[in-house]
Amino acid sequence: MARRSFLRYAGAGLAAAGMLGAAACHKANPVVATGLDIGIGDTGILNYAYALEQLEAAFYIQVVATPYSGITATETARLTDIRDHEVAHREFLKATLGTSQAIPALTPDFSSINFGTRASVLAAAQAFEDLGVQAYNGAGFLIESGIYLGIAGKIVSVEARHASYIRDLITPGSFGDTTILDVNGMDQSKTIAQVLPIANTFLKTKVNASNFGYVAS
Amino acid sequence: MNLLGLIEEIEKADPEFQDRISPRRDAIKNITSFGSKVAIASLPFAFATLFKKAYGQTAITSVTDTLNFALKLEFLESAFYTTGLANTTLTAQFSTMELAYLNSIKSHEAAHVKFLQGVLGSSAVLQSSQGNNGTYDITAGGTFPTVMTSSATFLTVACAFEDTGVRAYKGAAPNLAGNQSSLTAALNIHSVEARHASAIRQLLFGRGITIKPWITGANDTGVAAVNANYAGEDNTTQNGLVITSLSGVSGTISTNAATEAFDEPLTPAQVLPLVTPFGVK
Q1: Contact A88 B188 (CB under 8 A)
Q2: Contact A160 B191 (CB under 8 A)
Q3: Which residue segment(s) compose the domain that B12 sits in?
């Protein structure tokens, strides 16, 4: 395990140096991951969830710490609740994975979000919540353990409750409109390879899933 | 395709696997000689045949039964909103925004019915097999006598339906494990039921009721008649971890947050008594 970790980090360093070379001669250079890899099997899926929950928790911690202009008392209470739910998810996943399996703490990059304005904060919140729902739904079938599948189910519906609330804060009645649901009135699950590139735009440390078909370029 | 590895994996998940395929035990154990008699290319097919024989109808029926159970619940939910929104005594009491929310949910439930019927095909249960020739008792045998005359009662029942629907899909999902399309479809409906539950709770909050979009503790609706629908939602231990002992932003995670952050499942056997009074069979 230690050896594998070492190689992973060594690879991360090499990749940065190899970027220009890769651009110049794409085919000759294999894609080398930058940042972290979630791993394989259920550990990989739990780390995937852990990465997303870290991102969400960090976001809401910032939202509550620096409230946007004109925030109401109810909004503060609800956003604080959501913050605490995401922290509970993050800490649960971290403890479940254990120190030997869990990816390290990720450094977020929220430079694209203006925490001072309601519109910017809620748009980001909506994006995070909808993405979380789509991510859990899309990863469900990959989970081998019945227990972890059950836990993922317990978490994803709470993310959906958040998504619904945030959407209605932005536009009342948009909790399940046609921009998010398909013609069957169903959420549209996303694969790991679809979710991580979006999540990575908010992360300084890039997250890879080499065993699930995604390596950050 | 690593057949031997796959067999080992199946044995881990199902210790009785060898017994299930007892007559073919030698063939499995001696897979190399088995392979010598069957073209390598047809091995996956031969294995699939063995697998099908080992599990036969059981696995298939389980998925079908689970999807039919979901269909029965969607029939009820769809009928609930269709009946309520066709009732002018009720609709006159809703605001324009409330009606928009409810109509949106109504259309989703109808779409879920259609989707599940499409997936199940000729195996789909008929709505006429439910209730009284397809008509439900929305009062649940008189438990909610004003459900079609009071918008407040209607919203309360809607809240219980949606929260229970979330629990039902969650509890049934493990039956679909290993079936990528069915499980993913069920999860994609499950999260929409949660969006609905959150939306209905927002409507209740808008009417001055103390309730959040997420479930705090057990029954947080203030309506004792739905206590059983929320039984166990106050769980604070997940996979052996006491959530309230984990680190929060300041101190540990609060009990409220610990219960709100995880929705709890109900098995089909637990859900059935909750919906039987409405006519689900």
Answers
A1: no
A2: yes
A3: 3-53
**For the whole model, what pTM was predicted?**
0.83
pLDDT tens digit string along A83-133?
999 999 999 999 999 999 999 999 999 999 999 999 999 999 999 999 999
Q: From residue B130, give the alpha-carbon distance in Å to each of A102, B83, B248.
A: 48, 16, 47
Q: Hey, what are B230's tokens?
A: 């929320």
Domain count, chain B: 3
Q: Which domains does chain A have, with CATH numbers?
A: 41-203 (1.20.1260.10)
Q: Which of A149, A165, A176 has its CB closest to that of B213? A: A165
Identify the residue whose tokens are 């190899």.
A18
CB atoms near residue A204 (< 10 Å)? 11
Domain identity same for B151 and B225 = no
Give me the phi and psi of B18, to 5 degrees please. Answer: -60, -40
> pLDDT tens digits for A47-62?
999 999 999 999 999 9
Q: What is the pLDDT confidence band of residue B62, given thresholds at 50, 70 and 90?
A: confident
Quote the pLDDT of residue B228: 97
Test A133 with B191 for CB contact under 8 angstroms. yes
Whose CA is closest to B75, among B132, B106, B113, B111? B113
**Which tokens hold the place of B6?**
């796959």
Same domain, B204 and B226: no
* Closest residue in A to B166 (Cα–Cα): A157
